[in-house]
Design brief:
single chain; 234 residues; alpha/beta; Spore Coat Polysaccharide Biosynthesis Protein SpsA, Chain A; two-stranded antiparallel sheet; 7 helices; globular; binds cytidine-5'-triphosphate; binds the ligand C[C@](O)(CO)[C@H](O)COP(=O)(O)O; 2-C-methyl-D-erythritol 4-phosphate cytidylyltransferase activity
Length: 234
């Protein structure tokens, strides 16, 4: 059986949210954001290890609530300057037995187990897989003055979320190649690293509930979403 390793990146500074407390450690829907994701992934028996990537100052002195998980299946790694660097550090610390890897943003606390399973099952087929949602609004490209330049077709456009899953050797190679080629730092997700190498990555259905807390107002949105039952769309 292929063992699954998870990297949860929580190494960012949350500059768009602002405030004194790091966003990924703040509470949403009854517990710290990171703990929501950590417990969701650990509830899946195939998950052998979850690496939580924390900013340097927290990695050596983690918040005590992080141990309200299965400590036998949890490791802490040190974050890097960019998201990609944090992912890369987490990948290095995953035990060798983990041949499939799921990568997730701590900033998406409401990830559901069915959504994780959709990504995991697709990645186990031997290619990349990401949670995503089709674009439903009409899209406009604008100039620097906010004047519309054109309407962009939304056909075939999807919004990327996390988790994103890959065979381990594939994503490790994609990170290594991106570092060599000098575009590692600019990648905003892991699928992008594979796309540039021509490695196949498929979308599976994501969820509106798995929103990314990016700006201060997103905390209120996440609280509302937490109480929303998506039923089969979870
Ligand atoms: N150097 C970094 C940057 C980001 N992340 C993580 O990547 C996820 C997605 O990033 P984002 O939401 O953009 O978080 P921040 O980078 O912290 O936010 P900002 O860009 O507003 O500073 C978050 O869980 C964040 O903690 C990380 O582990 N290491
Ligand atoms: C990985 C991601 O969450 C997919 O939507 C997103 O790209 C992270 O981007 P950010 O620039 O770190 O907010």
């Amino acid at each position: 059986m292929s063992r699954v390793g998870v990297v949860i990146v929580a190494g960012g500074s949350g500059s768009r949210v602002g405030g004194a407390e790091l966003k990924q450690l703040r509470w949403v829907a009854g517990k710290p954001m990171l703990l929501h994701s950590l417990q969701a992934f650990q509830s899946i028996p195939e998950v052998a290890m979850v690496v939580c990537v924390l900013p340097k100052q927290y990695a050596g002195d983690p918040p005590p609530w992080i141990f309200q998980s299965d400590p036998e299946r949890m490791l802490i790694s040190v974050g890097g300057k960019t998201r990609a660097e944090s992912v890369s550090n987490g990948l290095e610390d995953l035990p060798a037995e983990c041949t499939t890897v799921l990568i997730h943003d701590a900033a998406r606390p409401l990830v559901s187990v069915p959504m994780i399973r959709r990504v995991m099952d697709e990645a186990k087929k031997g290619h990349g897989a990401i949670a995503a949602l089709p674009v439903v609004d009409t899209l406009k490209r604008v100039d620097a003055d906010g004047r519309i330049v054109e309407t962009v077709s939304r056909e075939m456009l999807w919004r990327a979320q996390t988790p994103q899953g890959f065979p381990r050797d594939v994503i490790v190679q994609a990170h290594a190649e991106a570092k060599r080629a000098g575009w590692h730092a600019e990648a905003t997700d892991d699928a992008a690293l594979c796309e540039r190498l021509g490695i196949a990555v498929h979308v599976v259905r994501g969820s509106e509930r798995a929103l990314k807390v990016t700006e201060a107002a997103d905390f209120a949105r996440a609280e509302l979403m937490a109480g929303w039952n998506e039923g089969d769309d979870a």
